[in-house]
Amino acid sequence: MKYATALIAIAGLAAALPQPAENNVVARRPARRNGGRPQHLSSPNMRNTSYPQYSSNWAGSVQIGQGFNKVQGTITVPRVSGDSDSAASAWVGIDGDTCSTAILQTGISFYGDGTFDAWYEWIPDYSHSFSNFAIKVGDKIRMEVDASSKKAGVATLENLTTGKKVTHTFTSTPSTLCETNAEWIVEDFESGGSLVPFADFGTVTFTDASASGSQGTVTPNGGTIIDIKDSSSGEVLTDCKSSASGLTCTYTG
């Protein structure tokens, strides 16, 4: 996302889906700095929502159901720490978990060098940056994806602090949504096929978080909670918890 070069669409799709680190783990997605995406870890059908599941790059909450066509949430932009090339993303999306063929998503990435990136994506296409959308630490950013059909939709980011809003309308899409997953995620994304160093983002909290569609409205509360586990060391790097008011993910690495 932040760099002009992007991963090719096929590579992006492969990276965008869940990839296992161990049994009962969720997936990972690929990179964003180069336009990559995440992927989950293991078979979603093996998960149970009573305990956190683990992924190499997703942390947050996933609701699994039918007919999801709109997901929204608001975060306060965190101050991150770590190496200058470290990074993390926060986003909302439809599909990409039990539906492995598509994801519609939008969000922001924050980097250890103090820069930010606002982006939208319909996998397996790579991510694209919004232009003229200033972001700084402490800004409140509202994120929304709204699918008018399984092949069309709109991604919207609004800086509630500055009043600036950007949107992208998808009219020619590379995949068909299943509308079975709604997500609120903090991600350690990939660049060039490898996960970037994960930035210490402190805490990211999604408020005003909901997903709606043909089956009604849900929030992150009651969804499958996912935390990021380093596949090499086994260290758990996040601690995510949902409540009636939203979802909070804390960096623990």
Automatic annotation (TrEMBL):
The keyword Signal applies. The keyword Signal applies. Keywords: Signal. SUPFAM superfamilies: Concanavalin A-like lectins/glucanases. Residues 1-16 form the signal peptide. Residues 28-47 are annotated as: Disordered. The active site is at residue 187. GO terms for molecular function: glutamic-type endopeptidase activity. One of its GO terms (biological process) is proteolysis. This is Uncharacterized protein.
